[in-house]
Amino acid sequence: MEYQVKLEVFEGPFDLLFHLIEKNEVDIYDIPIAEITRQYLEYIETMQVLDLELASEFLVMAATLLSIKARMLLPKEPKLSGGESPDEGADPRDELVERLLEYKKYKTVAEYLGDLEAKQGRVFSRPNDAENFFNLFDDINPLEGLTVLDLVKALQEVWSKSKEQGEKFQEIPREEITIKEKMDEISSMLNRRSRGISFHDLFAHQAGRTEIVVQFLALLELVRLQAVIVRQTVVGGEIMIYRREENKAAN
Amino acid sequence: MGILFSDEIKAAIECLLFVANEPLSVEKIAEITQISSRNVRILLGEIQQYHQGRGFELVEIGGGWQMCTRPELAGFVEKLYRPKAATLSKAALETLAIVAYRQPVTRAEMEEIRGVKIDGVLSTLLERSLVQEVGRKSTPGKPILYGTTVEFLRYFGLNSLEELPSPEYLAAGI
Amino acid sequence: MGILFSDEIKAAIECLLFVANEPLSVEKIAEITQISSRNVRILLGEIQQYHQGRGFELVEIGGGWQMCTRPELAGFVEKLYRPKAATLSKAALETLAIVAYRQPVTRAEMEEIRGVKIDGVLSTLLERSLVQEVGRKSTPGKPILYGTTVEFLRYFGLNSLEELPSPEYLAAGI
Q1: Which of C77, C82, C88 to mutate to probe the A interface, most A CBs <10 Å?
Q2: Which chains touch C (3 or more CB pairs under 8 A)?
Q3: pTM of the model
Q4: Same domain flag for C146 and C74
Q5: Residues B115 and B54 grouped into a single domain
């Protein structure tokens, strides 16, 4: 058996409410709140059943609708003899209607803009490549007004943006690094240091992202081969790496 | 400017409009061609008339003048280029509508009207240069105020914000 | 093609010539407009005549047809573009800084540092003679190595690359 679930995506609770009001062909100034609330909740439930992401605003609106519904069910407060309640005649739906109308205004404009966009999307200007023109002129200095300091500033910006600060000004023979080499390097380092080496120090002098990754893979491999022991004595403290025999001796 | 030069100046203006990548203001054209803004306008009118109904036309857009292809011919351009159709989402259009009609407006005000958070949509609009920061509101927290850009006008083929009809007018028409 | 449609087809061809960035062959135009090459040639002739002596003309060039500005009007184009020619974008300047300090450097290395693709920016730098190819790296794929040019030094008034502030000085923070 084949069935289809057609579920419109709404941009927000107002969008959904509008859809329901239009679908039910009801007067926005006299919303049958019980029925609309029922349908609204039904939609939310479907969304949840289908495990679709539901913005919290939808739930807030659900609460608002239920509260309005509850207030509509309350008997009208008996008039106090002589005086008139300032709330008299106030419809619990008023505020919601006001916000819906305000939203509707922009929803209408949005549709209009969408039409303009579609129309303008069919209009093309000439895509001139400015570079073509620059070549036509002699003696253009593309660095006019710039100094070496501007170049330095640009570099500083690149530098601060780049996560691996300070690594960029050495030649990186990336292609040559292998995990095996790194494993050997770490082992010999640990042989020289009986008290172990900190995780931080192990990675301190790596030239680049690639090398750091290879170094890390090498370390994992050594752990897997049980050639090294990795320990952290304090939570959040320094991670120490020991050669396995050294570690045993220390204990 | 002597009237004798007008054909050559007209050609110069046409040439500028042809090579420019953005709408050219009357002032810019006047500055480059060294004639009065009034004369630029007259010649722009003549150029507009000359190209009317042909493959591309002269239109006033985003506060300037630009040569653009006619919408009816889009099919041919698409056959040549297959351009991307990255249209704005419904959410983006709604947010943009609020900015256009309520500017300068804060993010909180937009969220209040739309009834949802607008973080993602607002950054899309900022990235596409359709919306920009225009200042700070002098209320506690000094929230950023947003407004539309010249790119907004161009994107929708408008010459100025005044060309946008009122929401009431639109609502009546639909 | 019925002769009745020729105005609209003519507009379509004009439109194509307007948006194209390179000469269009008669065959290409015929393919897009679905008319015969013979008719395309006739209409191209009419279009050429219409634009004769104006701001831009239709010329046959490199085995195709292209709208081009008239050479006599180049002075106006220069007035429009010269101010733009003298400014390098931030992205271009950043890339130039990397080349200056890391040369010889491959495109991949520059992209890694900047964290973005640099195709457009790199060709700008090459076209503006600020950067040049200086060799090939002896790694798999033999990527092109880039370095700065003599013009680069001249524009900054430097005698040699040694006169650039050192990266260490830079790291110390200026």
Answers
A1: C88
A2: A, B
A3: 0.61
A4: no
A5: no
